Amino acid sequence: MRIAIIGAGALGLYYGAMLQRAGNEVQFLLRRDFEAVCSRGLTVTSPKGDFHLARVLGFRNPDEMGPADLVLVGLKTIDNERLAELVRPLMQKNTAVLTLQNGLGNEELLAEAFGPERVLGGVAFLCSNRGAPGTVHHLGEGAVRLGEFSGKFSARAEGLAATFSAAGIPCQSVPDLVKARWEKLVWNIPFNGLCALTGKTTSDLLASPAVREQALALMGEVVEAANAQGLSNPIDGNAFCARMMGLTEGMDRYRPSMMIDRQEGRPLELEAIFGTPLRRAAEKGVEMTRVRLLEALLKLGE
Amino acid sequence: MRIAIIGAGALGLYYGAMLQRAGNEVQFLLRRDFEAVCSRGLTVTSPKGDFHLARVLGFRNPDEMGPADLVLVGLKTIDNERLAELVRPLMQKNTAVLTLQNGLGNEELLAEAFGPERVLGGVAFLCSNRGAPGTVHHLGEGAVRLGEFSGKFSARAEGLAATFSAAGIPCQSVPDLVKARWEKLVWNIPFNGLCALTGKTTSDLLASPAVREQALALMGEVVEAANAQGLSNPIDGNAFCARMMGLTEGMDRYRPSMMIDRQEGRPLELEAIFGTPLRRAAEKGVEMTRVRLLEALLKLGE
Question: Which among A200, A211, A299 has CB closest to B208?
């Protein structure tokens, strides 16, 4: 499969490398890593085994890329104003575009630009950080759940899930992408938010009984908002939150992406992870009280 | 009047100096400022006019102080385990003790040690910071509202209010000390809490519409908890919060005491300003949702 990676950060570099290693023809749109990757290739460190790709197709400009069967989008949502223009040169007759970006609103942007039938979305439960140029650190997890923006079953989504799985990326196609997106937010909102605000890692947060209680309460607010969105079937809040807590306990002093963005002085993905979810919750009459406070405090540092 | 100041920080030094200037005989229990005050006196800078007291009675040990008609307590509540032992040597037959400390629970401690009939409490709306040793900066405000712990009208409380007023400290005696304490918390909880957590001044907070909205929402939670305490008459939430917002707008980049404590690496007065109010709210069936989140985040930095 010919795959173009748009937004080759910690997520795009890792999944792109895994897909290339499995035999797919992968092209990467690069900024920071362009020179390192083109001259020395791409190195992945991982508890599942480090590996190095000596020859990597890196580009500075999407006009030079393609053709592609799949455009995989890992762009930071703060750059979404450039999303359509970056993806457009790659969209040929049958190209599909899969966004694994954070939060809500990304599929809608792509659907508006290219038509809803082209668009898939997914959520990645991936702990990864960028290392020095040309290196990405996979810290743990990595599963993807993807589905059609249209919400329908498709052979295309099934096929993509199979391609990912064959590349060592546990992947499921899901019938209800909206639900998958909100489930991801049940983790992202508390842990990205609290870690970015306090400068503390996931392990630091969980070591405080009071903060653990608040993380659970934030999760509960997101579940309530999610279940007001008309999901195919509701999220079982207690069980799901307990599972997310368990996953988080397994993370070793993890710094979520929003925390790293704050520490490195970059803007935060507040609109995708907080603003749009808060708006969609309010549209259904759900006020996420604690989430709103957390958002306001995060905005203050911008 | 013979007045002993226990806990001569920004509040104790300022009120003590004002009371001495007006002709009262004031003794100060000092730690950090002992040598500077004993050798060079005490300097107050203030928008109402700077002044200097050349001869100030400073002590290192409460056993050497007294006798006193009034013990005025300005001790940080984090040192409350030492409160009774510091005050005890000064408590003669008719000595009254007035605590202007932050938060809830201070009068109860004194009442347990010395009997409820000895105890008055008050709230100070004072913006002041300590300067170099021997100097205190009065930045603005300064009014005191005080009352008997017993909740009854007393000539003693009236007399104290008159003494304070005569010294240039606007002062009212109030029949409902519990209400006055909670009214103060309506300001203290949001602004001490948010400034300490974020490291931003009051002006920075108010410049953000989202944070201003949250400050108002926090105020609203405290008003609801206050009004569940069986006050003599309820706080008029909208009017009172609007007045507190107006006061805060008049503060120029003010750093509340809890923010300074955090910045200087000292423990925060979390039990008096957050813990006890949250418990008393919960006892009346009121859950202060946002306040609880703020407390948890503040605890994390301790």
Answer: A299
Is B293 in contact with A294 (Cβ distance < 8 A)?
yes
Question: pLDDT digit string (tens) for A28-65?
Answer: 999 999 999 999 999 999 999 999 999 999 999 999 99
Counted residue by residue, chain A has a size of 302
Give the closest of B213, B296, B299 to A296, CB-based. Answer: B213
* pLDDT tens readout for residues A77-92: 999 999 999 999 999 9
- Quick check: A203 contacting B, CB < 8 Å? no
Q: Which residues of chain B make contact with A208, given a CB cutoff of 8 A?
A: 296, 299-300
Write out the two tokens for A76.
Answer: 């930071």
Can you point out the beta strands (E) in chain B? 2-6, 25-29, 42-45, 51-53, 57-59, 70-73, 96-99, 119-130, 135-148, 171-173
**Whole-number Å distance between alpha carbons of A233 and A249:** 27
Judged by CB atoms closer than 8 Å, whether chains meet at A293 and B197 is answered as: no
Question: Can you give the pLDDT at residue A147?
Answer: 97
Would you tell me which residues 180-199 of chain B have a C-beta closer than 8 angstroms to some C-beta of chain A?
Answer: 194, 197-198
C-alpha to C-alpha distance for A19 and A23, rounded to whole angstroms? 7
Q: Look-up: residue for tokens 């105020």?
A: B219
ipTM confidence:
0.88
Residue located via tokens 């909102």 = A189
- Catalytic residue check, A48: no
Residue A137 to residue A128: CA distance in whole angstroms: 5
CA pair distance A82, A89, nearest whole angstrom: 12
In the chain, the amino acid numbered B73 is V
Give start and end residues of each alpha helix (H) in chain A. 10-21, 34-40, 83-87, 106-114, 155-166, 177-198, 202-206, 209-227, 237-249, 257-263, 270, 276-283, 289-300
DSSP state letter for A267 = P
Q: What φ, ψ does residue A149 adopt, rounded to 5°?
A: -60, -35
Query: How close B275 gets to chain A, by Cα (Å)?
Result: 12
Give the residues of chain A that fall short of pLDDT 70: none
B128, B100 contact by CB (below 8 A): no
3 state SS of B280: helix
- In chain B, the domains with their CATH numbers are 2-175 (3.40.50.720), 178-300 (1.10.1040.10)
Q: Do B297 and A204 touch (CB under 8 A)?
A: no
Q: What is the pTM of this model?
A: 0.91
What residue type is assigned to position B255 of the chain? R
How many CB atoms sit inside 10 A of residue A19's CB? 23
